[in-house]
Design brief:
Chain A: Belongs to the ETF alpha-subunit/FixB family. Chain A: Its cofactor is FAD. The complex is a heterodimer of chains A (320) and B (265). Chain A is of the alpha/beta class and 320 residues long. Chain A contains nine helices and 17 strands. Chain A is elongated. The relative contact order of chain A is 0.12. Classes of the chains: A alpha/beta (320), B alpha/beta (265).
């Protein structure tokens, strides 16, 4: 069976969930060979093996952290040449997409980004994408070169499938361009203790109706009662009420959780583009005419400062 | 010496319009109004600020705005010129219809080399394809550093520095020019063209190039030359109407009951 290269997104050896989803999808089109780079790379092997990686190619070098993107492109290209895979898969993170883009140019291959599903086809893997603010679903394939595909978080349920996961050192010689963009400082994001927005099964978002930064704890309290991530609309972010890293929408993050709760969000097209593929959508808004109500499975027309705290209490009570 | 800045922009169908596909599964541009991609306005704005900073320091800068697209795409160039860019390049060729990201990056890279550059500025993504891969592809093709997804950017003494807000960390980046940068929607609100700017834009030069000007063969671009193929596009079925209740004191509890029924609690 053909081997499929899977790029591993990890933080100091802890594999992030979208990579495990990627391994599940990779198994549909071949045998996953994982490429794990940087500090803690070898520590990713057990989790990768448990989810179907037949081999884990690892490389550690200071260049991966000290310079932007290109050292990782060099490494993935080395893996590509060593393995001759039938496809190369990346998580649709900012970095994943950039590495994929440069690899595609180097190996002369087509690239598909932000796939939400992947299956084997007669002429190679077929990727499903959600486009035009999720108004259309397309099915595409790479027609020239080895398919390079990036996949969005929450596109597949993680399935365990134990495999050998044999660790092999990957030989990488860095290109002259690898050290072009220096990372002169890095400040890790402070953990909020809440799940990551793009990976969360439940997202609770606040918008203009929240009225101010001082009111966001109302949204956060509901999120915490449900074990959810917190999102914000562009209006709330632009007003400075919540960090940009939590923005849901066309220019922020796209999320596709099992449950999306929109509080005080009217549902402009740009916001809908970022959450429309959520499985169940719930909204609380004072304005009965708000476009968000066209999308909802359940909507409450009312004051979010009445409805949301009551919901939070009820969730706590029911969870005991 | 004058700092040569090239800003890559895209003419896109208005996201608030009813976007759909043509029969050949390319984006239907006939039925929807087009405009300069909102995310590229941030790129134009940052280029203007870099040029203005340089001029304040008694130096010089020139901004060329570049697009690849059909006749109407000139509208996007006019908007950027009216914001303050100095000149424009429009790459237009009927063989370009259906060109995908890889092909577009080839055309842009050739046009950038022909124009001459010290700094290339892109938006973080287009608002239609939303791939967000172009800056990386351009850096790869041009063989220069990539300083991408910046919320802050500045240029001094032949060095570009910027701030990148990632999922797990914020990074400060630095590279020597020439370089390709891309900026996010957090980089700073784009200015509105003034009346004076709009009038001035009408007199600014817009060069028109076709594939032969860039030594690109028709078979390497367009729908035939694309590295990817769209096999089908289906409209998402309309959601079935949900339940909507008016809060009369029990709205939160009713919502909790719905969530419990769906096993979220």
């Amino acid at each position: 069976m053909a081997e499929v290269l899977v790029f591993v997104d990890h933080v100091d050896g802890a594999v992030r969930k979208p990579t495990l989803e990627l391994l599940t999808l990779a198994r549909r089109i071949g045998e996953p060979v994982a490429v794990s780079l940087g500090s803690g790379a070898e520590n990713t092997a057990p989790a990768l093996a448990e989810h179907g990686a037949v081999r884990v190619l690892t490389a550690e070098a200071p260049e991966f952290a000290d310079y932007l993107v290109v050292p990782k492109v060099d490494a993935v290209q080395a893996a590509f040449e060593a393995v001759s895979p039938s496809a190369v898969l990346f998580p649709s993170s900012a970095e994943g997409k950039e590495i994929a883009a440069r690899l595609a140019v180097r190996i002369g291959s087509g690239i598909i980004t932000d796939a939400v599903d992947l299956e084997a086809g007669e002429e190679g893997p077929v990727a499903t994408q959600s486009v035009f603010a999720a108004a259309f679903t397309t099915r595409s394939r790479v027609s020239r070169g080895t398919p390079v595909i990036t996949v969005k978080p929450n596109s597949a349920a993680v399935e365990a499938a134990p495999a050998a996961g044999a660790v092999e050192a990957l030989e990488v010689s860095f290109s002259e361009k690898a050290t072009g963009t220096k990372v002169v400082a890095r400040t890790p994001r402070e953990s909020t203790g809440r799940p990551d927005l793009t990976e969360a099964a439940i997202v609770v978002s606040g918008g203009r109706g929240v009225g101010g930064a001082e009111n966001f704890p109302v949204v956060e309290a509901l999120a915490d009662s449900l074990g959810a991530a917190v999102g914000a609309s562009r209006a709330a972010v632009d007003a400075g009420w919540y960090p940009h890293t939590n923005q849901v929408g066309q220019t922020g993050k796209t999320v596709s959780p099992q449950l999306y709760i929109a509080a005080g969000i009217s549902g402009a097209i740009q916001h809908r583009a970022g959450m429309q593929t959520s499985k169940t959508i719930v909204a609380v808004n004072k304005d009965a005419e708000a476009p968000i109500f066209d999308l909802v499975d359940y909507g409450v027309v009312g004051d979010l400062f009445e409805v949301v705290p009551q919901l939070t209490e009820e969730v706590k009570t029911r969870k005991g | 010496m004058s700092l040569r800045i090239v800003v890559c922009v895209k003419y896109v169908p208005d996201a608030t319009g009813d976007r759909h596909f043509a029969e050949d599964l390319t984006v239907d541009r006939d039925d929807v109004d087009g405009l300069l991609s909102e995310l590229d306005e941030y790129a134009v704005e940052q280029a203007l600020q870099i040029a203005e900073e340089r001029q304040r320091a008694g130096d010089d800068a020139e901004i060329t705005v570049l697009t690849v697209g059909p006749e109407d795409a000139k509208d996007a160039l006019r908007k950027a010129l009216s914001m303050g860019a100095d000149k424009a390049v429009h790459v237009e060729d009927e063989d370009l219809h259906g060109t995908d990201a890889l092909g577009t990056s080839l055309v842009l890279a050739r046009a950038i080399e022909k124009t001459g550059y010290d700094l290339v500025v892109c938006g973080m993504a287009s608002t239609d394809g939303t791939m967000g891969v172009l800056a990386a592809m351009l850096a790869e093709r041009l063989g220069v550093p990539q300083v991408s997804l910046l919320s802050e950017v500045s240029v001094e003494d032949g060095t570009v520095t910027g701030r990148r807000d990632g999922d797990t960390a914020t990074e400060q980046l630095q590279a020597r020019l020439p370089a390709v940068v891309s900026v996010t929607d957090q980089s700073g609100e784009a200015r509105y063209p003034s009346f004076k700017g709009i009038m001035a834009a009408k007199k600014k030069p817009v060069a028109s190039w076709d594939l032969s000007d860039l030594d690109i063969e028709a078979e390497d671009v367009g729908l035939e030359g694309a590295w990817t193929a769209v096999e089908g596009a289906t409209e998402r079925p309309a959601r079935t109407a949900g339940t909507i209740v008016k809060d009369e004191g029990e709205g939160g509890k009713q919502l909790a009951a719905f969530l419990a029924e769906r096993k979220f609690i």
